TrEMBL record:
Superkingdom of this protein's organism: Eukaryota
One example GO MF annotation: GTPase activity
UniProt name for this protein: GTP-binding protein
GO-annotated biological processes: cellular response to starvation; negative regulation of autophagy; positive regulation of TORC1 signaling
Keywords: GTP-binding, Nucleotide-binding
Species whose genome carries this gene: Salpingoeca rosetta (strain ATCC 50818 / BSB-021)
Gene3D superfamilies: 3.30.450.190, P-loop containing nucleotide triphosphate hydrolases
InterPro entries (alphabetical): Gtr1_RagA, P-loop_NTPase, RagA/B
GO CC list: Gtr1-Gtr2 GTPase complex; nucleus
Family to which the UniProt record says this protein belongs: Belongs to the GTR/RAG GTP-binding protein family.
């Protein structure tokens, strides 16, 4: 059992870096929310989000225009930076690597963020998202990533950073946010151990648990690790499922479960606990009913 926990999460970065777009994609259920024409966020907009039914995120989407940023580091400094569990600093990877003014702004704001965190929430964890990576060519990506991470780490000094690449146009956004949310989720290790027992009990090849509202990947276990496997394929599943869910909502309908079977394997997506959905990959398509029955029996361990 996991206690109800509330965490303050700051989403910061220059105006236009993509903060509101990403949180809208991950957390909104509203099919009418588009991200192409986002209006700039005014000041710090607080959103209360429920995750896994027992983790509450108090997400502060901090508008990145200079006038607002200046306030965060002066009159509103303590209000914004006290009791922070996680800072997510979003960098427009294209802008920071090609535009001197953007780089200067990011350097200034990021350094101020770390200084304020050290003062008001010294135990806070910092994630940096090198965002809009779709705008950086494959050829330039290694240099942009290395250069930006080195620069920010130098500014952060001994404050540890965890950095991810992301883009709203592919599964990297889901990968980054899955890691951030599972960092905040107490008891993830317990889920992992239980999933490991489950996979053997039902004879599955792989089992993945997704959070049912966001479809972020919580935990995944494979019976045999395959070093050649595509590491982002479940985040790709997250992206596809979330798009499908939004499409269903647009049609004023919803979906409960899915099955894909051929002669070699079967994949089932079933509601599992009240806040999770399980994806089971199984080698024996003829054992669907048995797997489903065992999964039903296992629910109690995860509730
Ligand atoms: P402020 O509210 O002013 O602080 O800006 P913001 O950081 O919230 O940026 P916002 O989410 O409003 O995004 C600005 C623009 O960037 C929008 O037009 C988005 O569609 C676009 N955008 C967001 N993420 C990505 C991405 O990963 N790739 C690309 N190419 N564009 C993106």
């Amino acid at each position: 059992k996991i206690d109800k926990t509330k965490h303050k999460v700051l989403l910061m970065g220059r105006s236009g870096s993509g903060k509101t777009s990403m949180r809208t994609i991950i957390f909104a259920d509203n099919p009418n929310v588009g991200v192409r024409k986002m209006t700039p966020t005014k000041e710090a907009e607080q959103v209360h989000l429920e995750f896994m039914g027992n983790l509450y995120l108090n997400l502060w989407d901090c508008g990145g225009q200079s006038a607002f940023m200046n306030q965060y580091f002066s009159s509103q400094n303590e209000q914004i930076f006290r009791n922070v569990a996680v800072l997510i600093y979003v960098v427009d990877a294209k802008a920071i690597s090609t535009d001197k003014k953007s780089e200067e702004e990011d350097r200034t704001w990021f350094e101020m963020c770390i200084k304020s965190l050290k003062q008001h929430s010294p135990s806070a964890k910092t994630f940096v998202l090198l965002h809009k990576m779709d705008l950086v060519s494959n050829f330039e990506q290694p240099n942009v990533v290395r250069g930006t991470v080195d620069m920010l780490q130098e500014l952060a000094g001994d404050h540890e950073l965890t950095c991810f690449q992301s883009s709203i146009w592919d599964e990297s956004l889901y990968q980054a946010w899955s890691r951030i949310c599972t960092y905040l989720l107490p008891g993830v290790e317990v889920y992992r151990e239980s999933l490991n027992s489950l996979i053997h009990a039902i004879g599955a090849r792989e089992v993945v648990l997704f959070e049912s509202r966001t479809f972020l990947t919580l935990v995944r276990e494979s019976r045999e690790a395959d070093p050649a496997e595509d590491q982002q394929r479940f985040e790709r599943v997250s992206t596809i499922l979330k798009h499908f869910k939004i499409t269903c909502l647009k049609m004023q309908t919803s979906f409960r479960e899915m099955q894909i079977c051929n002669s070699e394997f079967s994949a089932f997506l079933w509601p599992f606990t009240t806040s999770t959905v399980a994806l089971i990959i199984h080698d024996r398509p003829d054992e669907v009913e048995m797997v489903q029955a065992n999964l039903q029996l296992a629910r109690g361990h995860f509730a």
